[in-house]
Amino acid sequence: MADIKTSGERSHNMSQIHSKDTKPEIYFRKMLFGKGFRYRKNVNFIPGHPDVWMARYNAAIFVNGCYWHRHKGCKYSYTPKTRLDFWTAKFQNNVNRDYEVRVKLRNQGIRVLTIWECTIKKMIHSEQEEQQIMHKVESFLKSDLPELEL
Fold first, then answer.
1. On the chain, which terminus has fewer CB atoms closer than 10 Å, C or N?
2. Does the global pTM surpass 0.90?
3. Architecture of the domain spanning 21-149
C-alpha cells in the first residue's frame, strides 16, 4: 500500500513531533504541580533523561507516547503500512532502549513511573478518571513500590 502523503509532507509531519514538552507531558506536570508536588523536568544526569524527576521520592517519571514506545494492546500503537522493515526495527530499538533504561534505573534504586499517552487522554476527557489516576500516582510516590505503569 502506498503512503497517502508525499515524502515531503511525511517529513514535515514527522519533524513536528517533539521529544520533550509534549502536550501530554505538560498536562501531567500541571496535574502534579497542582497537587503540590515539585519536580525537575528532562534531567540529563538520570539514565533515560526522564520527563519528570522527583528527587524527594527518588522517582523518575516517563510520559510515553503509545505509538513511539509501543504500548501493548493500545489502539494508538499501530504500525505504518509502508516501509515495514524500517518501522519494525525502529520500534524494536525504542522498546529495547526503554527496557534497558528501566533496568539501569532499578539497579540504581530509582523508582520508575511510566504513564502512557492514552491514560493522559482518558484523564483529559474524564474528571473522575483524572482523580483516580492522580490518586494512583500519589500512592505510588508515597509508597516503596519500585515501578508502576499507568
1. N
2. no
3. 3-Layer(aba) Sandwich (3.40)
